[in-house]
Amino acid sequence: MTTDELRDAYLDFFVSKGCVRRPSDVLVPNDSTVLFTPAGMNQFKREFMGLGDPAFTRATTCQKCLRTGDIDNVGKTAFHETFFEMMGNFSFGDYFKREAIHWAWEFLIQVLKLDPERLTITVYLDDDEAYDIWRKEVKVPANRISRLGEDDNFWPAGAPTHGPNGVCGPCSEIFYHGNGPKEVEIWNLVFTQFNRIGPGELEPLPKKNIDTGMGLERAAACLQGVPTVFATDIFKPIVAAVAQQLGVDYVADGPNGTRIRRMADHARALTFCIHENVKPSNEKQGSVLRRLLRRAVIDAYQMGQREPFLHELPTVVAEVMGRPYPELKESVPRIRNVIREEEDQFLRTLDNGLKRLDDLFRKTKAAGSDTIGGKEVFDLHQTYGIWVDITESLATEHNLRIDRAGFDKSMEAHGEISRPMKGAAAVFATGPLDTLKSSYHHGSEFLGYTTTEADGKVIGIVEQGKLAESASASSDGAPLVVLVLDRTPFYGESGGQVGDVGEIKGEHFRFRVTDTKKDNDFTLHIGQVIEGTVTLEETVQARVDPERREAIRRAHSATHVLHHALHIHLGKHAQQAGSKVEPDRLRFDFANPEAVGRERLRAIEETVNERILRAEPITWTTMPISEAKSLGAMALFGEKYPEVVRVVQMGEFSRELCGGTHLDNVAQAGLFKLIGEESVAAGTRRITALTGKAALEYVRQEEDLLADVASTLKVPANLVGERVSALLEEIKTLKKQASQRRTETAPRVSADDLLAAASVLGDVKVIAQLVDGSSPDELRQLIDVLRRKAETGLAVLLLTVADGKVSLAAGLTPDLITRGLHAGLWLKDVAPVVGGGGGGRPDLAQAGGKNPEQVPAALEKALESIKAKLGS
């Protein structure tokens, strides 16, 4: 059975048992407790908490997941992966242990045709109910059932004794013993039946739930009789592609087997994450991607690969995963661009970083130590981009470890420490709106597609983070309050469109809405009570600011027209990667490997305005998402859509899934004016544009500015460009003449003479000199010459005086930066002596002063400061 066939068989089986088949959630869920979706149960958080639709009690999914907790084992063991798929079936207060156990056995034996003699079972040691079902009803022999403790067969692991408090329960695991993998856990049945309130104190839940997980790749390895997930039909082509790119043969137990498997895994994870618009960065999800990519590049580098290659692999991943995820193929050009740019950037610094790391390994061993200092690990991270977990992994290969506490201390000192992720139990964290969710399952009804005014009822008041019965105006400045209505015309910020503002009025109060947000299906009106007192169950009139809403509609509809124009002039790869829609202003991110260029930007702007002039109608309708996709409606990758979606159509040229508010006709957008284009991430560009009144105001301001410049230059507006060019050429000539005169009158300074006269502090040469007749630019150029000649161990601080002012410049060779010195901080010590200030980068910095008479004292201070820094 292929992996694709296994996935379909599992889902079809549980649909036959009454489970509703739900699509995989996105990899980056709208959940602050996790970075990536780690398991199938995460998208059903509300249902497990009893806050979902009471009619929805059974589900089955095949969920895309990403975990990095055991990343060091990826490629080394048979079954560790970062990205993987988890098949699951779930019950929310419906079926329980008996059905979950019987159905699991039925699927394994009758559908997958596994030999029951190859299966063993584990249960929690106190779970007699589960044991009896396996032993007495399923008839599994007692010698193939094991009772294990809370660390092995409880969720969360060790919860009864160690916590955390909250929902928990015993579990039962199914192991397969086959010809391929010797033993593998292929299924975990979690019976969430308790609420932990203290050590050993477990209260029965009023509604018991089932959360099961069956690893797709693990099960496929068992069925296909192969020893690892990397030998399955869905992984084998990716592994082969890695070997081909590196020009080697893949030998599973060879010296490079682990590296090739790890690269294949990381390439798959990168492809799916970038497809959902996650980009490599130093924060949150982006930092995980950057680490995966750099680990793969280092693996290849250690095999002799010096050129980018990883960007070639998404094509293979999309082909292998094309049946369940056909949309991947559309994103391949964008994914390749993002990976290629990140590869290029990292390879530029990798050679020096790995040499430095090898030196650290050698020196550590020579010193008889087995620990690499935390500061040295941080320097590798900061200067060469080698992340701590990569250093830790490479150190392990040399039987060394790192001083993790010392590294964390250095990170904290530089403000780079990141917040830890919350634990698994935080998935069930609750907030002040949860009581509302249990009473109003369908949330707030949104009426804003057809009106900006509507009556409603107050069903929730949140003040100071807590539910309240009422909220009143205050003489000393009303605090922020959140009102929740059963029906509202206010649009809550989502899909890039900002929230509405306006007013909510009742018989005894007025409430100014300053922002509107969404929480699941609830609309949160954020603002202040400016008159009277608002109470629960009160009937109100809600009115959106109509002019602002109209300006937002203009900008939002323009983003769809812009998306169409980008596809015409750049290609289908220019997929939307995010947007921000404000009143008559839009920001649109899209995939493109390079700057668009002035001519193409002008053509894009012209296409948008031509579409506006055609005055085509804008319509919308709702339909099942499968139907929308079959009609070619564009979706934003990485966005989770409901089963029934809203499709916005503009004429015959644009059809997109969109929940935002739009115009009735494209012509109502008025003028479209593109005002900026820039890079925001590897392979992602951003266009900023204006519509309607804001566009007209921008054009008028540009006209006024041009008129002012023309008046100053005393030429007609159409000759401003020629006059400016002539002035620039004149300035260039005057600068050249001034430079020649200065060169003729000032004595030449020799870099060799300065090096020969340098002070020596240990293994460092220090130059602190006054250089007469030089410009600040010439000081910088001279520092560059000195650093090239010295190569290592040189600190330079030069001064010059002109027109009663002092200019300073300082520079360091790279090895001194690695040792903790900083040119900008050195200048900050010296510049105040001449009555100035300044700073700059670690390698080169500039400053200015106004007391030339203090130059000798400044030179003394420069030597004194660098000596102190070297001494420390």
Automatic annotation (TrEMBL):
<keyword id="KW-0694">RNA-binding</keyword>
<dbReference type="InterPro" id="IPR012947">
    <property type="entry name" value="tRNA_SAD"/>
</dbReference>
<dbReference type="InterPro" id="IPR050058">
    <property type="entry name" value="Ala-tRNA_ligase"/>
</dbReference>
<protein>
    <recommendedName>
        <fullName>Alanine--tRNA ligase</fullName>
        <ecNumber>6.1.1.7</ecNumber>
    </recommendedName>
</protein>
<feature type="binding site">
    <location>
        <position position="662"/>
    </location>
    <ligand>
        <name>Zn(2+)</name>
    </ligand>
</feature>
<dbReference type="InterPro" id="IPR018162">
    <property type="entry name" value="Ala-tRNA-ligase_IIc_anticod-bd"/>
</dbReference>
<dbReference type="InterPro" id="IPR023033">
    <property type="entry name" value="Ala_tRNA_ligase_euk/bac"/>
</dbReference>
<dbReference type="InterPro" id="IPR002318">
    <property type="entry name" value="Ala-tRNA-lgiase_IIc"/>
</dbReference>
<dbReference type="GO" id="GO:0008270">
    <property type="term" value="F:zinc ion binding"/>
</dbReference>
<dbReference type="GO" id="GO:0004813">
    <property type="term" value="F:alanine-tRNA ligase activity"/>
</dbReference>
<dbReference type="GO" id="GO:0000049">
    <property type="term" value="F:tRNA binding"/>
</dbReference>
<keyword id="KW-0963">Cytoplasm</keyword>
<keyword id="KW-0436">Ligase</keyword>
<keyword id="KW-0862">Zinc</keyword>
<dbReference type="Pfam" id="PF02272">
    <property type="entry name" value="DHHA1"/>
</dbReference>
<dbReference type="Pfam" id="PF07973">
    <property type="entry name" value="tRNA_SAD"/>
</dbReference>
<dbReference type="GO" id="GO:0006419">
    <property type="term" value="P:alanyl-tRNA aminoacylation"/>
</dbReference>
<feature type="binding site">
    <location>
        <position position="556"/>
    </location>
    <ligand>
        <name>Zn(2+)</name>
    </ligand>
</feature>
<dbReference type="Pfam" id="PF01411">
    <property type="entry name" value="tRNA-synt_2c"/>
</dbReference>
<keyword id="KW-0067">ATP-binding</keyword>
<keyword id="KW-0479">Metal-binding</keyword>
<feature type="binding site">
    <location>
        <position position="658"/>
    </location>
    <ligand>
        <name>Zn(2+)</name>
    </ligand>
</feature>
<dbReference type="GO" id="GO:0002161">
    <property type="term" value="F:aminoacyl-tRNA deacylase activity"/>
</dbReference>
<keyword id="KW-0820">tRNA-binding</keyword>
<dbReference type="InterPro" id="IPR018164">
    <property type="entry name" value="Ala-tRNA-synth_IIc_N"/>
</dbReference>
<feature type="domain" description="Alanyl-transfer RNA synthetases family profile">
    <location>
        <begin position="1"/>
        <end position="701"/>
    </location>
</feature>
<comment type="function">
    <text>Catalyzes the attachment of alanine to tRNA(Ala) in a two-step reaction: alanine is first activated by ATP to form Ala-AMP and then transferred to the acceptor end of tRNA(Ala). Also edits incorrectly charged Ser-tRNA(Ala) and Gly-tRNA(Ala) via its editing domain.</text>
</comment>
<keyword id="KW-0030">Aminoacyl-tRNA synthetase</keyword>
<feature type="binding site">
    <location>
        <position position="560"/>
    </location>
    <ligand>
        <name>Zn(2+)</name>
    </ligand>
</feature>
<dbReference type="InterPro" id="IPR018165">
    <property type="entry name" value="Ala-tRNA-synth_IIc_core"/>
</dbReference>
<keyword id="KW-0547">Nucleotide-binding</keyword>
<dbReference type="InterPro" id="IPR018163">
    <property type="entry name" value="Thr/Ala-tRNA-synth_IIc_edit"/>
</dbReference>
<dbReference type="GO" id="GO:0005524">
    <property type="term" value="F:ATP binding"/>
</dbReference>
<comment type="similarity">
    <text>Belongs to the class-II aminoacyl-tRNA synthetase family.</text>
</comment>
<keyword id="KW-0648">Protein biosynthesis</keyword>
<dbReference type="InterPro" id="IPR009000">
    <property type="entry name" value="Transl_B-barrel_sf"/>
</dbReference>
<dbReference type="InterPro" id="IPR003156">
    <property type="entry name" value="DHHA1_dom"/>
</dbReference>
<dbReference type="GO" id="GO:0005829">
    <property type="term" value="C:cytosol"/>
</dbReference>
<dbReference type="InterPro" id="IPR045864">
    <property type="entry name" value="aa-tRNA-synth_II/BPL/LPL"/>
</dbReference>
